[in-house]
Amino acid sequence: MHPAKSVIYFTTATGAGYGLFVWLAYLALQGLLPADKLHAFVFLAAGFGLVITGLLSSTGHLGHPERAWRAMSQWRSSWLSREGLMAILTFIPLSIFAIMWFFMGQSAGPAARIAAIGAVMAMITVFTTSMIYASLKTIPAWHNIWTKFGYLTLSLMSGGLLALALSGVFGMETAFHALIMPVLVLLVLGLSVKYLYWEHIKTAKTSTIESATGLGRFGKVTLAARPHSEDNYLLKEMGYRIARKHARKIRSLAAAFGFVLPLILLVAAMLYLEGTGRAIALCLAFILCMIGLVFERWLFFAEAKHAVTLYYGEQAV
Amino acid sequence: MTSLPKTTKRKLGLVIDLDICVGCHACATNCKEWNTGAKSAPLTDLDPYGKADGVWFNRIHTYETEDAEGTSRTVHFPRSCLHCDDAPCVTVCPTGASYKREEDGIVLVNEDICIGCKLCSWACPYGAREYDEHEGVMKKCTLCIDKIYNENLPLESRAPACVSTCPTGARSFGDLGDPNSDVSKLVAARDGYALMPEQGTKPVNRYLPPRPKRDTSSQAEDRAPRTLEYVDEEAGSAPLLARLVDRILSV
Predict the structure, then answer these.
(1) Which tens digit of pLDDT belongs to each residue from B134-147?
(2) Is B200 on the interface with A (CB under 8 A)?
(3) ipTM for the assembly
């Protein structure tokens, strides 16, 4: 599948943004969020900035972005529609929480409970995003449970790293200690889920060139002639092949940047660093993780084979 | 509404005979000709005199098969929308632009509300949907909806363009939901099959498999002479002049 930049940014940015809101609710419920305007502004700007630019970016690959509002209507059948609707609905509790925190100086009590509602809805939104991909039977690399686990885990993980980075910058000692262990667990969990995903897609196949043409009764089927001499839309969008030979290297980069290096930095921040050094390590961990997730998401698209490629000579998908 | 109808009154579709198809691309050409001026007009061509790329509803592939004994075949294979009963391209559509008609089962796109998100093309295993980059919307086979119901056309012309034009009669059109229709009888007689049934899309269109090969072994009596030597063996009984020419040429 063609890895569109707009969709890679959309899924990684909204994932981190929604994840951050989950950890803000977690801190708010424990009374660990400072109520002042500066904290409120920075945390909320980071969260809303990622979510809003991500959602806007997702309209970037549309043929008619001005009609995007229509995508809210078919929630009964379409996961893309459900995702659009959930994204809009999630803004309601998140905006109320933002108003209470920034304008009214409340970050605990009722504000924390509104934030918790927002956090649950944020995770449902991330789940609907994952289902856009996981619901497609034509792409066995996506049509599996690891796709759903992956999106949810990586959203919580990258959002948690962002929460840690900001708490490091503000020197929020108790918040740091409340966040560090869950985020370390999520880094290990995230890498495990991606490993299981990569193992799964080695063997996941639904159809063959024989079933696609129905000619298996005559033996082995191969493509003798394409219908057209130049690549058409189907081959450009669904027959993307550039990444496959580099997949192993890019996987290593995704694993190193996305998970291993942030893990080392977090352990160092926990055991050896304090003050500015810790803040720098935590910020670096978040930045490296996002770079790793861009590699990971690029592979998620580029490695995925679509059933239509069977008509163009692929043997099994 | 992108939920599928529970049942459709008719199941209009195509039956494609792979035994007859010669891979001439006439169906694809006439499809382009009709549809570039019909409901989904235009079927945009980008850079037609360079790296040509454009929207087509019909694509003709050619496959080779080879069995364990080394017997091979060449099969021409037209590929177009199968107007599936459980069309995944319809249910994934977020705007309601994609729909399946209750009256005849035809799957269509309302281009006025399509946002061009391309998800329907991801959901279709058959590559039936092509994105028109110039128009920013998705396009697909309409089963020539503006031809098959067109009362201004003579009755025999009210068939999809690909069916009307096929010079070998490899394509048939009709109601595959009616077991007594000509197309249903044809499918039953020739063991017509659906493509990728494991994808769960329940296609309406059917393909008829190539018939078994005739005996092609050298003992077969009706085997056509394949080489000049075969003809030359008979030279002894030819008229004098011919034998003379044969002798001179054989020196």
Answers:
(1) 999 999 999 999 99
(2) yes
(3) 0.94
